[in-house]
Design a protein that fits this description.
Elements lengths: L9 E4 L2 E4 L8 H6 L3 E17 L5 E19 L2 E17 L8 E5 L2 H4 L8 E9 L6 E10 L2 E6 H18 L5 H16 L4 H9 L3 E8 L2 E8 L11 H9 L2 E8 L2 E8 L1 H14 L1 H11 L2 H20 L15 H30 L4 H42 L24 H11 L1 E2 L1 H9 L4 H8 L7 H6 L8 E7 L3 E6 L2 E6 L1 H11 L12 E8 L3 E7 L11 E6 L10 E5 L6 H16 L1 H12 L16 E4 L1 E11 L5 E11 L4 E2 L4 E4 L8 E5 L10 H4 L3 E2 L3 E8 L5 E7 L4 E2 L4 E3 L12 E3 L3 E3 L8 E4 L7 E6 L7 E4 L10 E3 L2
Parallel strand pairs: 8-10, 9-11, 14-18
Antiparallel strand pairs: 1-2, 3-4, 4-5, 5-6, 5-7, 6-9, 7-8, 10-13, 11-12, 15-16, 16-17, 17-18, 19-20, 20-21, 22-27, 23-24, 24-26, 25-27, 28-33, 29-30, 30-32, 31-33, 34-38, 35-36, 36-37
Length: 825
């Protein structure tokens, strides 16, 4: 109705107020009188992203705004002051970043043209014009206009409960402690403000109580489509049975809703009355919204919940202790629905048939009355079991029909703006990066092989099977259930391997997947052909190995060409896998590259950080007692000492021609005084204890403010890890290890460990390289043998001629290729 400098602001056509884009709106009086003084501030935000991360941490929501323009102008003319505020938003989208969400996009424009990028003007337009001085005793608004295009709101139950938990934790963290002192101080402060003349609180209250004089207010109706997907598996325990049933029935699919707007002209109203008017209009539509919700609920999904509740009730009538209608599990398709339904019916029938005999026997312990009561329960159960079984079967069948209907004819989903933000095991918030985001999405989309086999067994079509393997943010139920074993894992790294394989490294395990579509996608990303990814194909798990079941990993050379870098990594299990019977996994890497070394380095680094046993060994090393160079009495401590105390570690048995077993060699561990360390285990022929004393070395801690190089870098240092030389699980079991020294140090001898475990790093020390000299090994091995785990694994032990009586272990019966080293002091 009012116009001035700039384009028109609003117009009346057929009784309907239409809001038009504008930059400035002035009343006619101000326009004619001219502007004596004015201020104009305009802010344009091309794109803005706001991410919501919870305490776990995990990204829950991402709010994306595009084309946000804020415009504020103020001035005065003819003694009248005016101000105008305008805001326009071209596009808005809120994404659900939880993996396998049924609705990846929570809020977006519902108009199909807007989804395809064809905009019919801004999504949201707000304009407010106010003047002061024209009407006394009121706040004067010549024009208030708001327009919002139709929106689509889609919410999954898992996200709903996560938001509730985040809000509860946030409110409890920000709430001040309710102490009596704080309450007394707050009350005194409030009393002082109320008693002070001209206080700011009184002035603010007076301004808020001024009536509003509004010439034109046009807030259009907000048309919405509402979708909701219940998920019983994500429901917390605090949800009672009534709430659970209500949520199960509230499966909504694009339920049309309209939030009422406000149209006023030439009114004078209090702020509270205006708020009550808006609330009253919402209440008037609540009944219509409730009817629409019932009408929009999924037919198959709601029927499944009703059948399940009825079956539960029938089972409760016969036996309250076994009131379980059907197993609480997700059904992915109609074939699985029939399978689960048949199983539920058979279980109910079997329970009813056996109850005729078991119930009287259970009640017989209470006398003749208990026996008769048990017989009555058994007969009632036998009669009611077919009904309960039929209801349970119908529940599962209809649930499968609902799942397959959603898969085939579900609502077309709009992609997220980007992939969920990755979080590694250190739980640090980092800027979004595409490479780890791809790996995290692949982890969430991993499918166990038995899930794919089950899908093929029931005759799932290729189209449905592609949904099962699916994408990392799809709603495939089978993918959710099969990959639930990885729900506690956090992504760390991943490598693309030859043959469309991917090695995933998590905080708890190694996972090898076959994922040709993912490999093709990442190759496009790495080549620069693709820079923006919103969906990630999944992969099928070939094998997975938890760190607690992993013995070690080592490099492998398959080409057998001198000078060629390793092209594989061997991952050793502690025991054979019950699933595939494997003891060692051979991971092939790209030949003629450093991928194998990089993969091994990533595996070892992740294990050291997150494997509990490695963490405990590091803590033990940190707390291990180390001696200073000078005692408290000022006496110089010796650098070495002799040990005559030994602990047996392992004995090697050999079978004679007569079939008897004799000890051919034994390995011992020298024990020294506190603060002294060994450089390797001792090997002896036969089972006798070593008769010769063994030299041990003072283990001094490094000093940060040392002036000399020798003090800054101590003579001894623990290894960074161990390399497996030989393993044998037969009785007695043994693993032989070579310490891996840190940079600038060298190992002196090998160690043995009498079980399928890697030794702790605090067990042995390495010597600084400039303090080591070359030694020699004896001409013949002390022991050589073949592992019972694999006939091709051969090991041998070679004695070193040194005062330490150490030994070297080799992966063959031949002489070790490296020369042994001994300290020069």
């Amino acid at each position: 109705r009012r116009s001035g400098a700039g384009s028109s602001s609003s117009s009346r056509r057929g009784g309907t107020w239409m809001l038009l884009p504008t930059t400035r709106v002035l009343t006619p009086d101000l326009a004619m009188g001219g502007v004596a003084a004015s201020k104009h501030i305009s802010v344009e935000v091309t794109g803005l992203e706001v991410s919501l991360v919870d305490h776990r941490p995990q990204e829950l929501l991402v709010l994306s705004l595009e084309g946000l323009m804020l415009d504020w102008a103020s001035g005065s003319s003819g003694g009248l002051a005016f101000s105008q505020f305008g805001a326009t938003l071209r596009d808005l989208q809120v994404d659900d970043q939880l993996p396998d969400s049924p609705y990846p996009v929570v809020l977006m424009p519902s108009d199909e043209d807007a989804r395809r990028g064809i905009k019919n003007g801004p999504l949201i337009v707000v304009q407010v014009v106010s003047e002061s001085g024209r009407h006394r005793g009121c706040a004067y608004y010549p024009s208030v206009a708001v327009r919002v295009l139709p929106m689509h709101l889609a919410l999954g139950e898992a996200l709903m409960w996560r938001l509730v938990t985040a809000a509860r934790l946030l409110s409890s963290a920000t709430a001040p402690p309710a102490t009596s002192a704080n309450a007394t101080a707050a009350a005194a402060h409030a009393h002082a403000l109320s008693a002070a003349p001209g206080a700011q609180g009184t002035a603010a209250q007076a301004i808020s109580e001024l009536p509003l004089q509004i010439d034109v207010m046009n807030i259009t109706d907000v048309d919405m489509k509402l979708s909701f997907k219940a998920d019983a598996m994500s429901r917390p325990r605090i949800a009672n049975q009534t709430l659970s049933l209500a949520l199960d029935l509230a499966n909504l699919r694009e339920l049309p809703l309209a939030l009422p707007g406000v149209e006023l002209e030439g009114v004078r109203v209090q702020r509270a009355a205006l708020q009550q008017m808006v609330v009253a209009r919402l209440q008037q539509r609540l009944f219509g919204i409730a009817v629409s919700v019932l009408r929009s609920s999924g037919v198959f999904g709601s029927a499944s919940k009703i059948f399940a509740a009825a079956s539960h009730g029938v089972s409760a009538l016969t036996d309250s202790s076994q009131a379980t209608a059907a197993r609480r599990s997700d059904v992915a398709h109609v074939g699985e629905g029939f399978s689960e339904g048949g199983r539920a019916f058979a279980q109910n029938m079997l329970r009813g048939a056996t109850g005729v005999f078991t119930k009287p026997m259970e009640g017989a312990g209470k006398g003749i009355g208990g026996f008769l009561g048990g017989m009555a329960k058994g007969l009632v159960g036998a009669a009611a079991s077919p009904i309960g079984g039929a209801l349970a079967a119908a529940s599962k069948v209809t649930e499968g029909m609902d799942a397959q209907y959603r898969m085939l004819y579900g609502t077309r989903q709009t992609n997220r703006k980007r992939l969920p933000r990755p979080f590694t095991g250190d739980r640090m918030l980092r800027p979004f990066s595409l490479h780890p985001a791809l790996g995290q999405a692949l982890l969430h989309g991993a499918v166990l092989p038995e899930s794919v086999a089950s899908a093929m067994t029931v005759g799932l079509s290729r189209r449905l099977l592609s949904r099962v393997v699916g994408t990392g943010n799809s709603a495939a139920t089978t993918s959710n259930r099969s990959a639930a074993v990885f729900i506690g894992d956090a992504y760390e790294d991943h490598f693309l391997l030859p043959g469309d394989f991917v090695m995933l490294i998590t905080t708890q395990r190694l996972i090898l997947l076959e994922a040709p579509d993912f490999v093709a996608l990442q190759l496009r990303v790495m080549s620069g052909e693709l820079a923006h990814v919103t969906e990630v194909p999944g992969g099928v798990v070939v094998w997975e190995l938890r760190y607690k079941s992993m013995l070690t990993a080592e490099l492998a050379w398959h080409q057998q060409i001198p000078g060629v870098p390793p092209d594989g990594v061997l991952v050793h299990r502690k025991a054979r896998s019950q699933r595939d019977g494997m003891l060692v996994y051979d991971v092939r890497c790209r030949p003629n590259s450093h991928q194998a070394q990089e993969l091994l380095q990533a595996i070892n680094a992740t294990r050291r950080r997150f494997d509990k046993r490695s963490s405990q060994a590091a803590a033990e090393l940190k707390s291990k007692q180390m001696l200073p160079a000078v005692s408290d009495a000022g006496q110089q401590l010796p650098e070495t000492t002799l040990s005559v105390d030994f602990k047996p570690v392992w004995v090697a048995l050999r079978r004679t021609a007569g079939g008897a077993q004799v000890v051919c060699c034994s390995i011992w561990r020298p024990i020294g005084p506190p603060g002294y360390a060994m450089l390797g285990d001792v090997a002896e022929r036969g089972a006798d204890r070593p008769y010769q004393p063994v030299r041990m070395y003072r283990d001094t801690a490094p000093t940060d403010n040392a002036e000399a190089e020798e003090e800054a870098h101590p003579r001894l240092a623990p290894p960074v890890g161990y390399a497996l030389v030989f393993r044998d699980s037969a009785h007695p079991p043994v693993t032989l290890w070579r310490p891996v020294p840190p940079r600038g140090y060298t190992e002196v001898g090998c160690v043995a460990w009498p079980e399928m475990e890697e030794p702790p790093i605090s067990l042995v020390r390495c010597v600084r390289s400039d303090l080591a000299a070359t030694a020699r090994v004896y001409e013949a091995p002390l022991w050589q043998g073949i592992s019972s785990d694999n006939q091709f694994w051969v090991g041998s032990i070679w004695l070193v001629d040194s005062p330490l009586s150490t030994f070297l272990a080799n992966k063959s019966s031949s002489r070790p290729p490296a020369m042994p080293r001994v300290p020069r002091y």
